[in-house]
Amino acid sequence: MLRKTMRRKCLFLVLALMLVLLAGVALADSLTDPVKISMELSKNKFTEPGPVTVSITLSNVGEGDLPGPITLYYPSGKKVEEFGSPTLAVGSSKNWSGSWTVTQNELDNGKLTFSCKYSTYNQDGELVNKVKYFSKKISSVSADPVIEVRRTVIPSLATKGQEVT
Predict the structure, then answer these.
(1) Rounded to an integer, what distance in angstroms lies between the CA atom of residue 52 and that of residue 50?
(2) Are 119 and 128 in contact (CB under 8 A)?
(3) pLDDT of the chain along its 165 residues, tens only?
(4) Where are the beta strands (DSSP E) in the chain?
(5) Would you tell me how many other CB atoms lie within 10 Å of the CB of residue 26?
(6) pTM summary value
(7) For residue 121, what are the contacts with CB-CB under 8 A and spacing of at least 6?
(8) Rounded CA gap, 127 and 116, in Å?
(9) What is the C-alpha separation between 118 and 67, in angstroms, rounded?
């Protein structure tokens, strides 16, 4: 019985250490990511699917130039041609502003997600291709109801006790 308890404790300890190591690797990777992204929307509340102006800035905050181009993609996965495919030098940024039509699916999910692809070097100096997704929250709000009341009385002049429609 004591051996089973010890085995369970050892197994638990090994699993906990593995999780800490994996979290550390993920954190180190996010800290060394050279691409910083900011995205702004002209509005984030919608009564129905429709257009929104999106402004995105991609910046190289790393310690060296990106080894290849950076490519921006719409939520549909189509390349944003107007953005081009710049190679960002260290400290440089590229801006894009354009229109996107928010879909019902995006409203249902509560977010608008763009992405970019680029290459960077890992800690071993090897070239690594990356895809980075970035989102802004959006919400669906109900439209103010439009109520219109019209009355027509026939006949327009009635005497006391006369029936009207």
Answers:
(1) 7
(2) yes
(3) 656 666 766 555 555 545 444 444 433 444 579 999 999 999 999 999 999 999 999 999 999 999 999 999 999 999 999 999 899 999 999 999 999 999 999 999 999 999 999 999 888 889 999 999 999 999 998 866 677 888 777 777 777 887 877
(4) 35-41, 45-46, 50-60, 71-73, 93-102, 111-121, 127-137, 139-140
(5) 10
(6) 0.68
(7) 64, 67, 127, 128
(8) 17
(9) 9
